[in-house]
Fold this sequence. Notes:
Chain A is an alpha/beta fold. Chain A has 12 helices and 16 strands.
Amino acid sequence: MKILVIGAAGMVGRKLVTALLQSGQVGGQAVSALTLADVIEPEVVAAQVPVTTVAADLSTDGVATSLLADRPDLIFHLAAIVSGEAEADFEKGYRINLDGTRYLFEAIRLAGVSAAYRPRVVFTSSIAVFGEPLPEVIGDTHERTPLTSYGTQKAIGELLLADYSRRGFLDGIGIRLPTIVVRPGKPNKAASGFFSGIIREPLAGLEAVLPVDDTVRHWFASPRAAVGFLLHAAAMDTVLLGNQRSLSMPGLAATVGDEIAALERAAGAKATALIRRERNEAIASMVAGWPQAFDAKRAIALGFKGDGSFDDIIRIYVEDELGG
Amino acid sequence: MKILVIGAAGMVGRKLVTALLQSGQVGGQAVSALTLADVIEPEVVAAQVPVTTVAADLSTDGVATSLLADRPDLIFHLAAIVSGEAEADFEKGYRINLDGTRYLFEAIRLAGVSAAYRPRVVFTSSIAVFGEPLPEVIGDTHERTPLTSYGTQKAIGELLLADYSRRGFLDGIGIRLPTIVVRPGKPNKAASGFFSGIIREPLAGLEAVLPVDDTVRHWFASPRAAVGFLLHAAAMDTVLLGNQRSLSMPGLAATVGDEIAALERAAGAKATALIRRERNEAIASMVAGWPQAFDAKRAIALGFKGDGSFDDIIRIYVEDELGG
């Protein structure tokens, strides 16, 4: 099975590649070759199978077609400009998140004209496709009314994925990732960055700014759970999806207060004392429009598995990023 | 008030132009100039104000920008490839229905860079944005899961309209038109054409083919009601829309049997005898996935008005198309 990972240099992309090489198979089929693409050259990884790295921008003419040269059987499309950046740079957000996605789907369709080709495409969507009016718990058939350009671009990606799948051009599945915590490394430009920051920085002995109230409730998954979602999406029977090709993933609903309590259990009051409350009205008002919780019945019935508790999420961060 | 109508040569477009010129105003503001654009040159109409006609394809480079040369205050975007054709010609459907719409919105955004510009944009969407799973009556917050490429393109148009409105680039309102009956003239390529045909042809003494069962229930509006929706959308206070810029219009739910009964009341059994039942599985299975009825609470609360009965719909056709 030949696999293409677009967005392979990102946090989730790198963890996915590690998991693919560790298991050596997807749904019982052996991985035979891996192509890793991103706008910055992905790190070369040691592997038993041929691994090709490509530095290329999916929104540039011809790139999508060239990425399909060896006709991969499975494509993970994780590449995206994050919410904060897509909001700050309107044109760049649409170019990467909408045009890039469409060029990929079009290249797949056109690759199928000369000879049959219908790869599995796992597309990472986002809970940002949902916006006001929002119930406290969002069900599986709730309408998509995004409140950001990023959410709009992801919602459009979901619509294209469903139509291209319905027409038989590809075999798509869109997974709406919860907010990933705890993100390792430095903060990125996502407006949701503080959800990770208030755990990551105190565990490193650093101060973290909390721009919203402790009562803010949100929907989370660990990077390990996110990789699990991707691998399950790659192997599952997509006939079960019908025409609804995108699914809200089973995250964990927790408040900022729940996060802080879990941090205190893990690292004591000296850690939580490093959280500095400094309300930021712009971030607070953006976050107020975000989903708080989902009833992810469909995804659970289809076998997707989330995290058990915020304590688990912190433990996974400590194990995977801080050496246990 | 300068007005641009894109798709002005279509059935609804022509009736809209007539109505605009008859009233001479929109929301109390006098119409000062009218530009009529379509892929085929719109008919020149007699008017008290300057009327310009343009034959141009919105999906062609530079066309959208040139249509905005006189910075219209109000833009009706009605241009679209219909459902049957968008399904038959995948590339053409996406080019006209998605690219054309996006080019228009982009040209508006870029026209606002040099000097403030934020026109009202009335976009005709469609109930084809809804697909399985469908409740018997579709509410105002139902998810969009289109089952056709046309419905997908319209759903994407709605998402773009909302995002461009939220960002302040335009002041958009999307109206999801019911299926328009009775369409005058010849059948077009829409799969829904028979809903008009079984009224129109018998009234002209011609045979009409009915490809589905009498029990099929669907959602209708007369052309006169459709023009009323467009004019109301052009004048209403869009602040009331919030971030939900697209609305299902108040149509009339009726079965094919209801249609035929109304035809019999209007023109007797000699008319209904001209309906030949010839089931077409392809059309029947497509229609089975279509919406049957809506609870259009929001639109009604915002002042949109539909038809009262199918008898009214036939009466309007006879008055407006057959000279009473």
